[in-house]
Amino acid sequence: MGAKIPRKVVAFKTWQEGITIPSGYSVFVHYKEGLWNINPRKHGPDKYGPEGGPVIAEKPEYPVPGKNEGCLIGRVLYSSEIRSNGHFVMEFPELENGGEKNKETVFAIGRDGILIPKTDYPKLLQLRCNDIDSGIFDNEGELYLELEIW
Question: In 10 A of CB 54, how many CB atoms?
Fold first, then answer.
C-alpha cells in the first residue's frame, strides 16, 4: 500500500507518539508482536496482547471505559494550529497544555487493528494501553506495531 512505520508502545506510559497524519492520508494500525502485563499485583503475571486482559474497564477514569483493561487504544487529535513540513511530521503546538483548539477521538484498537480514515485536515495519532493514569506505573511489557500510511 504505502509507507510502513514501526512503533513500540510500552505499558507503563500514558499517551505515546504514534504518527502525525497529513490531510488526504489514511493509516492502518497493525499489531505485529509483543505482550504486556497490566496491574500485576491484582491480576498476577499473565501477559496479554493488544486485546487486553479479561477484565472490563468499568470505571470512568479509564481512557476507554467499557473495553478490556489493558487493550491497545488510540487517540486522534485535531488542532486548528497544525503546521506541516510536507512529510509525516508536524507540529501541534498546544497539545501538552490541552488547549481548547484541540479535539480528540479515543477508541480501542485490539488485535485486528484499525483504520484511521482520510480527512481534509491533518491529525495526530497517539497510542497507549487502556489503564488508569494513576495505576499505569506498575505495568510491564510492550507491543510492536506497524503504521501503514497511504
Answer: 11
Residue 21's alpha-carbon distances to 27, 90, 135, 141, 149, in angstroms, are 8, 8, 30, 27, 8
Domain ranges of the chain: 3-149
Cα 29 to Cα 48, 62, 99, 115: the distances in Å are: 18, 21, 27, 6
* Summary mean pLDDT of the chain: 84
pLDDT at 75: 92
Contact (Cβ atoms closer than 8 angstroms) between residue 133 and residue 13: no
Q: Whole-angstrom Cα distance, residue 38 to residue 118?
A: 32
SS3 call for 136: helix
Q: Give per-residue pLDDT as tens, 18-76.
A: 788 888 889 999 999 999 998 888 778 999 999 999 999 999 999 999 999 999 999 98
3-state secondary structure of 55: coil
**Residue-level length of the chain:** 150
Give the C-alpha separation, 69 to 136, whole Å: 11
The CATH fold assigned to 3-149 is Jelly Rolls (2.60.120)
Residue 128's DSSP bridge partners are 73
